[in-house]
């Protein structure tokens, strides 16, 4: 191994250990999506939305690649929406997927009836610019009127 290649590896190796880096290229699986959602819900339960917001907006363990944490209230308003923060506070209650499915109402139903679970729908994937199946894990935040969820495209 050349000295130049060894130097590059020594410089780049620590970057792969940072949250979110190294995972972005690898598509997370449903188990990882569930774990991120549960961790986000626990953080929201402990700290509240205002304190958790900066962590969800920043690149890192809660936001990398196509992964980010959404938070809505039980009325269907976005509380935290990292891709477009200016939309926080807006109602998304009647948002439908490409097949007309009222997906936010289903997210709320799963959270209220089961506490947590999976919701499937079809959504425009910005990476491929195609409508693709999306699988989202939903978790009602204990002690709060909030729902955390993370989605994963399934081509």
Automatic annotation (TrEMBL):
Mostly located where? Answer: membrane
Q: Which SMART domains match?
A: Cache_2
**Quick check: keyword Membrane in the entry?**
yes
Location in the cell reads: Cell membrane
Q: Gene3D superfamilies this protein is in?
A: PAS domain
Q: How does it sit in the membrane?
A: Multi-pass membrane protein
InterPro entries referenced in this protein's UniProt entry, alphabetically: sCache_2
Pfam hit, one? sCache_2
Q: Which residues form the Single Cache domain?
A: 22-105
Q: Hey, what's the signal peptide range on this chain?
A: 1-24
Taxonomically, which superkingdom? Bacteria
Give the protein's recorded name. Answer: Cache domain-containing protein
